[in-house]
Amino acid sequence: MFKRRRRHTGSRVLAVLVLLTLTAGFTAACGGRTGRDESKPAPAKLVIASQNYAEPQILSEMVKQLLEAKLGVTVEHKRNFQGSTAVHQALETGDVQMYNSYTGTQFTGILGMQVTDEWKDRRKVYEYVRDKFHEKYGIKVFEPYGFNNTYTLAVRRATAEKLNLKRASDLVPHAPEMTVATDPTFQERKGDGYDDLARTYGFKFKKVAGMAYDLMYQALKAGDVDVAVAYSTDGRLPAFDLVALEDDRHFFPPYDAVFFIKEETLRQFPRIEEIMKPLIGAFTEEEIAKLNQEVDVKKREPAEVAREYLTQKGLL
Known about the structure:
Layout: H1 2-29, E1 45-51, H2 54-71, E2 74-81, H3 84-92, E3 98-102, H4 103-108, H5 122-137, E4 139-141, E5 151-156, H6 157-163, E6 179-182, H7 184-188, H8 194-201, E7 207-210, H9 213-222, E8 227-231, H10 236-239, E9 242-245, E10 257-262, H11 263-268, H12 271-276, H13 285-296, H14 302-312
Helix pairs in contact: 2-14
């Protein structure tokens, strides 16, 4: 009796071992998912888009790195979109879920609004963009990052001193002898683009040259062009000793930098709002200009500059 029970027990042990081996093999074949809670979805991948210059790329890298560190998702950063419309279209089609842009850009561009005296107030423009993007596109617009990156007409310091240029309107009598450079997108913009700017100020430049931002600043510095339509927070203005002229006719609307994200994505990852809080209202024009300078002048990667900032602030 004893020997028969022992043989029976050995058979049961052998069967269990075979079953465990088969189960392990099946699990490995299915991707080695042992130890994971099967009720939870697989880690998601989010995509953030940015345009083809330093500032939105730095901000997008900050968002990417914070979400990866604190939310545990993979975030792809798609760079070098040509213009705000292309970025917005990518979000609408689902190719991306979030991007950084500017209130005035979306106010006149995507929403097609005209800039009048009624729309010079930063808060009013932000709230209009926030409400309309929610109503029309299901997009959440976060509170501003804290700085206003407006357009500005820039000249070399020597030119400003020679011609006594302080305000944009001071350029009017000199414009017929000058070449002005802009990026191609600005020439095409309605409401706050080149045609409306020239009409408002009465500019009649000898030539309007379209070129990428990197080339534009270099061309202005070298004297190949006389004026450039630049960004007020661009680090190359102080680095190249360029003078930004006052928009004395108040042509440009406010351009507060803000974060746009699909509301559907926020429902899936509600912690994003909490994770983004340390960046809201965190930047002055001077601070973001210094970060831009690290990329544009010192030729550092936006990802490196973003990580350094987040680390210094204790956010990573």
